[in-house]
Amino acid sequence: MERDTSFGIGLSKAEISERSFLSQVYLWMTLGLLLTGFVAAWIAFTPALAVGLLRSGGLFFVLALVQIGLVFWLSSQILNLSLTTATIGFSIYATLNGVLFSTIFLVYTGASIASTFLVTAGMFAAISLYGFATKRDLSSVGSFCFMALIGLILASIVNWFLKSPALYWILTYAGIAIFVGLTAYDTQRLKRIHQEGFASEGLMKKIALLGALALYLDFINLFLLLLRVLGRKR
Asked: pTM of the full predicted structure?
């Protein structure tokens, strides 16, 4: 195998390309998280905005619907969009998440939100590293977790009416397990997509952005579920 030793590290060109691709994925994901966090903190520390958003149930609901529609649109159409349009769409989605998530600052203490974020970051890094390094095929894990996620969503809707504390905690811990599995699967899937190759540099960048969106969603959902367990309410 041809090696590029110009930096003295003996990596093949394929390995360098793979690391470059995954670096783009994690960079986009990190930028999305930073944008979400900045918007959430800015609104949360502007009390009039935060309280107004919380009291305006109609606006909150509309923003949530727009957010859901946007993520489905990006996931299905990103390969048909220009990189600029896809980037703007991803940025808008991350911003909307920040607007909606600003309300958690009204429920949980800032210290517990920060500590939970750090725990989530550590867990995510370890799980993603496992997904990258393992030789085990995680396709079955991904399929199971996806079906379980559908069940989780349906059960959460039912419990919105039942308001059962026991079911709430069962769904919380089940959700954590599901997104742990999805994080490992999505990381391995991105690695395999890269190994299949890309028709162009532009396509690789759009796939990297799509991968960042998938991992961003895994991280955000894992964080929100862990916050239920670790967060301290005001």
From this structure: 0.91
